[in-house]
Amino acid sequence: MKFRIIHPESDADFIEEYNSIEDAFETYKNMDIRIEEYKMDIAIEEKIRLVKELLLSVERDGMKELVEWADREGFFEAPASSIYHGNYKHGLLLHSINVYNAYVKLCKEYGIKVSRDSKIIVAFGHDFCKIKLYIESNNKYKPYNVDYNVYNQGHGKLSVERIEKFIKLTDFEKTAIKCHMGTYTKDIEQKELFGGFNDFAVKLLYFADEISTNVLEIENDKNKNN
Fold first, then answer.
1. Is 191 within 8 Å of 162 (Cβ atoms)?
2. Lowest mean pLDDT among 1-5, 63-67, 170-174, 203-207
3. What pLDDT, on the 0 to 100 scale, is given for residue 169?
4. DSSP characters for 172-185?
5. How far is C-alpha 105 from the geometric centre of its chain's CA atoms?
6. pLDDT above 70 for 10
7. Which segments of the chain does DSSP mark as H helices, in order?
8. What are the beta bridge partners of residue 12?
9. Are 101 and 154 within 8 A, CB to CB?
10. Are 38 and 15 in contact (CB under 8 A)?
11. Separation of alpha carbons 120 and 103, rounded Å
12. What pTM was computed for the model?
């Protein structure tokens, strides 16, 4: 567990890990300090506000209209899937945040140059195809059903089409979004495009999506259900 160690006089604080709050107090038993559990999570309303702010910071004509459309159509409330990762309200938003953070980290770690605006656009726009894709059900084991009228319009390709109704995407952004499923797609054209593409910045979005889906969100969902 993580705890915030606070020095009352200076109001300085730092974060440390202990098995319990008792262990933390034992370490600092002879010092005048305050200890409280460190909670990283913030309210979903605040996350929505921060993501909107981040999206609106992109310097691209039509961005304001794109964010308004996404908000109006339910992007911020939508699930990320019907039965897998993030199959709950706001799941798509939380997944997109994870993808953005993972993509930024991977680009930095491997020295891959992608503009700030492009990172935001591809990370938050890659799954715009999932807006209105899922319909609530009364089945507690499968809380959402797939609307196949939306599903049959494509995945990455549909995301690109929806985004380009409002802003102009670069060739890199279009390719990254179209290929973010890697080889996990029925679209032969996109599968071949991903396999033959040498721009590692494109493939890193796929890896960021995989890390988010199969590592970060599996762990988060496990904790959520415990």
1. no
2. 1-5
3. 97
4. HHHHHHHTTTTT--
5. 13
6. no
7. 21-27, 44-56, 63-73, 91-109, 116-125, 148-151, 156-163, 171-178, 188-196, 200-211, 217-225
8. 7
9. no
10. yes
11. 9
12. 0.74
Which amino acid, residue 197?
F
Helix (H/G/I), strand (E/B), else coil: 214: helix
Q: Is the pLDDT of residue 95 over 70?
A: yes
Residues in the chain: 226
Burial class, 38, CB count within 10 angstroms (exposed 0-12 / middle 13-18 / buried 19+): middle
Using DSSP's 3-state secondary structure scheme, residue 45 falls into helix
Beta carbons within 10 angstroms of residue 74's beta carbon: 14
Kindly state the average pLDDT of the residues 185-191. Answer: 51
Residue 151 is predicted with a pLDDT of: 73
**Owner of token pair 């279009």:** 174
Q: What is the helix (H) or strand (E) element at residue 3, kind and residue range?
A: strand 2-7
Q: Locate tokens 């964010």: which residue?
A: 67
**Average pLDDT of 187-213?**
72
CB 90 within 8 A of CB 175: no
CA neighbor of 71 nearest in space, from 150, 126, 107, 124 = 124
